[in-house]
């Protein structure tokens, strides 16, 4: 009988408990040479596209916006191993964006949970509880020092507390951008090549104020085929992945997008969220 050897764990038992309780985890992923390679590929691509006054959110796996030189990040063994430890086998890449902002860009989002794309009446409060099976992990991996992500540790596994309720008002989705500060908010400051894996149901926000330095951060989302989708699986626009586009990709990227297509075919119910999510991105970011 063929023995399938179990994959070696990447995260320690302590890290898994930390992620479950606090909703985030920081790990070093890229060495300096890989950071430099990706920055070079991005700066080349940005020169052709021109600059912007807003934080960019460039969906680098889509044909019209592709940044070929960074696409192989979706095959990074350590990132996939971390996601496997957090979610289970059958890791499928979903979101893949580049946050790009020049020094001087003013970047402020309201505190939110990533349920913005769901009509209010479909939001289930059970999603924000300790026993809910969460099946999506989001990751920010900066290539420059980045302190733009803020999170309220532990808020993914409970309802909004009294302070949060005051700033959110009668919605579970997003507080106004000019709402008072949350005393429990924690700024996550990352060095180039470090990644933060986080639960996107936790209360969080992107907030840099007026950026002192350029921001170049790779942002991704992952799902496991072992469990039903949770939000917001369905970020990639799979309808754009033609055979011609797929065959132009590096083999590992092609295989990852093929696996994404197979999983999207198993879950057509998430397609409705895709459209809502794109509307959110256009409001919060410059997406071209
Ligand atoms: O790192 C950031 O800018 C925040 C991103 C964010 O809030 C989100 O994707 O929901």
The major β-sheet equals:
6 strands, antiparallel
Number of domains: 1
User: Rg to the nearest angstrom?
Assistant: 18 Å
- Ions and ligands: 2-oxoglutaric acid
> CATH topology, anyone?
Jelly Rolls
Strand content: 15-25%
- The low-confidence runs, each spanning 5 or more residues with pLDDT under 50, are none
Which geometry do the CA atoms define?
globular
What's the number of helices?
7
- Strand order, main sheet: write it out: 1-8-5-10-3-2
**Secondary-structure content class:** alpha+beta
At the first level of CATH, the class is Mainly Beta
Identify the CATH architecture. Answer: Sandwich
Concise synopsis of the structure shown:
The protein is an alpha+beta fold and 288 residues long.
Characterise the protein shown here.
It is a single chain. This protein is α+β, with helices and mostly antiparallel strands. The protein has one domain (13-284): Sandwich (Jelly Rolls). It contains 7 helices and 10 strands. It has helices at 13-22, 32-49, 77-87, 162-168, 243-247, 251-266, 271-284; strands spanning 24-28, 56-58, 91-101, 106-108, 137-142, 146-151, 186-190, 194-198, 204-210, 215-224. The strands form 2 sheets. A 6-stranded antiparallel sheet has the order 1-8-5-10-3-2. A 4-stranded antiparallel sheet has the order 4-9-6-7, with no helix packed on it. The longest helix is centred in the first third of the chain and has 18 residues, at 32-49. The radius of gyration is 18 Å and the shape is globular. The termini are far apart. The model has no long low-confidence stretch (mean pLDDT 93). Bound molecules: 2-oxoglutaric acid (AKG). 2-oxoglutaric acid (AKG) binds at residues 99, 109, 114, 140, 148-149, 200, 204-206.
């Amino acid at each position: 009988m063929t023995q399938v050897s179990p994959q070696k764990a990447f995260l320690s038992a302590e890290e898994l408990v930390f992620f479950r309780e606090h909703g985030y985890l920081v790990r070093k992923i890229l060495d300096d040479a890989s950071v430099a390679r990706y920055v070079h590929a991005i700066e080349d691509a940005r020169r052709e596209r021109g600059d912007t006054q807003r934080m960019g959110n460039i969906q680098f796996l889509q044909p019209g916006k592709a940044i070929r030189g960074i696409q192989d990040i979706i095959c990074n063994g350590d990132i996939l191993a971390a996601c496997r430890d957090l979610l289970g086998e059958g890791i499928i890449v979903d979101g893949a964006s580049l946050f790009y902002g020049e020094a001087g860009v003013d970047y402020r989002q309201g505190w939110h949970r990533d349920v913005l794309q769901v009509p209010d009446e479909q939001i289930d409060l059970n999603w924000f509880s300790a026993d809910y099976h969460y099946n999506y992990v989001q990751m920010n991996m900066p290539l420059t020092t980045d302190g733009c992500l803020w999170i309220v540790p532990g808020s993914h596994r409970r309802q909004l507390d009294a302070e949060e309720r005051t700033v959110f008002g009668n919605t579970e989705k997003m507080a106004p951008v000019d709402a008072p500060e949350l005393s429990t908010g924690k700024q996550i400051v990352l060095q180039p090549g470090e990644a933060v894996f986080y639960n996107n149901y936790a209360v969080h926000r992107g907030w840099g104020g007026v950026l002192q330095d350029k921001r170049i951060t790779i942002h991704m989302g992952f799902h496991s085929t072992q469990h039903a989708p949770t939000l917001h699986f369905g970020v990639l626009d799979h309808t754009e992945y033609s055979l011609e586009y797929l065959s132009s990709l590096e083999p590992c990227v092609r295989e990852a997008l093929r696996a994404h297509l197979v999983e999207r075919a198993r879950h057509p119910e998430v397609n409705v969220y895709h459209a809502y999510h794109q509307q959110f991105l256009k409001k919060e970011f410059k997406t071209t």
